[in-house]
Design a protein that fits this description.
The chain contains 9 helices and 28 strands. The protein is of the alpha+beta class. The structure holds the ligand Nc1nc2c(c(=O)[nH]1)N[C@H]1C(S)=C(S)[C@@H](COP(=O)(O)O)O[C@H]1N2 and molybdenum atom. Molybdenum atom binds near residues 76, 123, 125 and 246.
């Protein structure tokens, strides 16, 4: 069979593959690594690695909705998904506090006011596959789908810390998960994150009429109005809008208040921008916190054949993680970046939240390179180039998409 596959063929093949995958997920063998609660429908995701489980949606699916449905939300785990027994589960708060706390899930829900906010979560490695074209990079080869925009409900981290009574000298808040990640020496260690205390205590402007200012970080128990799924951190995770996804720690079991950032591998060594990776360079580099300003073309797909004339182009733009930064402008070029036109922005300008955008440029028959760039409320403009780094983090150069109009 030599004819090119039609869209129908693709649908048939991919739904058969999805069915096979769904069966695999619930098989006893599979459940050793991902508990039954994790066996949600992941058939809408492109699996980048099975063990640990890493998957992202297609870019077309990603821009279909402003709030990303949970089954189209990327999953990024460094180790196996832990099976948490909520009856024996507790969250502890310790370190530089007068009153260390031990809280059950129900206590977190009952003792602290519930805050619901919309925030994008983005992996620092999003778009790594593009940076890897400059020079190869190991790690999950993410396209531009390691991002999602969800509504999150939980307790304000600031209120939990207030209840624990922070001591003078506190500067950072550490988070520790329950996932046993295999280390090189054969031992296992949990994933950890850390954020400056300032961010934990910050607030962002109210989202919508009559709303209260949103907390700078929450300890979330719900995503899109449902309990967190096992893959997304059940029973509790932090959500830190504007920061790299790695600071939003899943299966959260411990919060430590400290005068320094966490010594956990994922703060002290990984998630740093380095080029050589020598012990010295790694030790000197600061941990990454804020996401950079970014924008991506999701439709049409790269390499697509489109009908000449007005063409529907759509994508997302993410503000930088600087306090209060929002997306202000998105521009599209159809000539590789020589001339630009404004795209139409959807939704509202909310810090830590993406904005979907669309444009309808005229494309004559022939090859075109579509390019997008964003500007945020701090005046920052997305750069044409972004320098290569060893781990492939924060890639945020102008996003390009070649199409063939005919
Ligand atoms: N405990 C734990 N938390 C974690 C991780 C992890 O492997 N273990 N991965 C982090 C990374 S790198 C990202 S990008 C986000 C992904 O969140 P998601 O899987 O809900 O999309 O979770 C973060 N929190
Ligand atoms: Mo990540």
């Amino acid at each position: 069979m030599n004819r090119p596959l039609s869209r129908r063929d693709w649908l048939r093949i991919s739904s058969a593959a999805a069915a096979a995958l769904a069966t695999a997920r619930t098989s006893p063998l599979w459940s050793q690594d991902r508990p039954a609660a994790a066996a949600v429908d992941t058939s809408k995701l492109l699996v980048r690695s099975e063990n640990p489980f890493n998957a992202e949606p297609t870019l077309a699916d990603l821009v279909a909705e402003e709030v990303t449905p949970t089954d189209r939300f990327f999953i990024r785990s460094h180790g196996p998904t832990p099976k948490v027994d909520v009856k024996s589960y507790s969250l502890t708060v310790e370190g530089l506090v007068n009153k260390p706390l031990t809280l059950s899930l129900d206590e977190v829900k009952a003792k602290f006011a519930a805050h619901t906010l919309t925030a994008s979560l983005t992996c620092a490695g999003n778009r790594r596959v593009e940076m890897a074209r400059i020079k190869p990079i190991s790690g999950v080869q993410w396209d531009a789908g390691a991002i999602g925009n969800a509504t999150w409900t939980g307790a304000a981290l600031a209120q939990i810390l207030e209840a624990a009574e922070i001591q003078p000298g506190a500067k950072h808040v550490w988070f520790e998960g329950l996932d046993p990640i295999p280390e090189k020496d054969g031992s296992v260690a949990p994933f950890g994150g850390s954020i400056p205390l300032e961010r934990a205590l910050a607030t962002t402007p109210p989202q919508g009429a009559g709303a209260k200012p949103a907390p700078g970080a929450i300890v979330a128990y719900a995503m899109n109005d449902a309990p967190l799924t096992a893959d997304h951190g059940y029973p509790l995770r932090t959500v830190v809008p504007g920061f790299i996804g790695a600071r939003s720690v899943k299966w959260l079991a411990k919060i430590v208040v400290s005068d320094r950032s966490s010594p956990n591998h994922y703060v002290a060594e990984a998630y740093k921008v380095v080029t050589e990776g020598t012990a010295d360079e790694v030790a000197r580099a600061e941990p990454i916190y804020e996401m950079p300003l970014n924008s991506v073309i999701c439709l049409p797909a790269a390499g697509a054949k489109v009908t000449a004339g007005r063409v529907q182009v759509a994508g997302y733009a993410l503000p930088s993680g600087k306090p209060r930064a929002t997306v202000r402008r998105v521009e599209l070029s159809t000539d590789g970046g020589k001339t630009w036109q404004d795209a139409k922005l959807r939704g509202e300008a909310v810090p830590g939240c993406w904005r979907l955008w669309e444009a309808e440029p005229m494309l004559a028959a022939g090859k075109h390179t579509l390019v997008v760039r964003a500007t945020d409320s701090t005046g920052a403009v997305q750069p044409r180039e972004f320098p290569w780094n060893l781990k492939g983090y924060l890639y945020s150069a102008w996003h390009r998409c070649e199409v063939q109009a005919g």
